[in-house]
Amino acid sequence: MEPIIPLAAILMPVMLFAIAALGPLLLIALIVWVGFRVVRGGNRREESLNAQRAAQDELRALMSGMEKMERRIENLETILLERGRSGAAERL
After folding, report:
1. Alpha-carbon distance 89 to 79, whole Å?
2. How far apart are CA 81 and CA 71, in angstroms?
């Protein structure tokens, strides 16, 4: 006994509809994926710039500290030279 409606006659429109429906969905998924990648890449660039700025700020702070130490050393050298001169003058 043969079926009244062949199975292929039922499945063919269902398969064609599924293929037709998946096309736009795959296109939308591709657009969302590419957009996500672009936004994520932008965040990485921003994080990199923030890290670079933080490193520059730290370098400026270190340079400022070095300049202060140089001034202190120069002041101490001046004080020692003056004491050395006054000590030499007292010895004479």
Report:
1. 15
2. 15
Structure tokens at 36: 């996500």
Residues 77, 89: Cα–Cα separation, whole Å: 18
| C-alpha to C-alpha distance for 50 and 41, rounded to whole angstroms | 14
- d(Cα 25, Cα 39) in Å, to the nearest integer? 21
Report CA-CA distances (Å) from 56 to 49, 67, 82.
Answer: 10, 16, 39
pTM of the model as a whole: 0.45
34-83 pLDDT tens trace: 888 777 776 677 778 888 999 999 999 999 999 999 999 999 999 888 88
CA pseudo-torsion sign 8, 11, 13, 19: negative
- The phi and psi torsions of 6 (rounded to 5 degrees) equal -60, 150
